[in-house]
Sequence to fold (189 residues):
Amino acid sequence: MEYTIQNEKTVFDDRYRIIKAKVTYDTFNGKTITTERLAFERGDSVAILLIEKDTNNILLTKQFRYPTTKHGKGWLVEIPAGSVEKDEDPKDCIIREVKEELGYRISKPKVIQTFYPSPGAATERIILFTAEVSSGDKISKGGGNEGESEDIELIKLHISKIKDEIPKLTDAKTVLALQYFLLNQTTEE
Fold:
């Protein structure tokens, strides 16, 4: 099956971009469709399932998310995450984000999965990592990058409580990461 992209142009450019294109693609019945599509370009992101081994906790963040106010919720509990800068290695990005958001130093984050959180509308991919730390790896306050107007609270979720908490969470990457943990759990409860 084939596709072609024509007349791709930027129709909005602020912190993020929206692009519009004429696309033609093959259908499953052997025909073609030609239409216009929009895509939200925000770049790639990283996120991490961070396990504090000596306390059997998953380290999470709680922070304000403006888009969620459209549904009456301003603060979300999430795994640490952030945007990959231009020419930045995703591994370096997640190391930086964990230090900024939680104040922990990490080494050797391992990729679990790369996925599209909203492929019908956005070009963004999330590279999901995992890593283990100990409480002694907390080397700074964390709380976010003040230059980015972040205000982040560290939340520790004991692994014995994950099954009870998943239904309360509304952030997809966090639900995915915690379900991954439950399926691949090797930590003693």
Observations:
- Residues 3-41 form one domain.
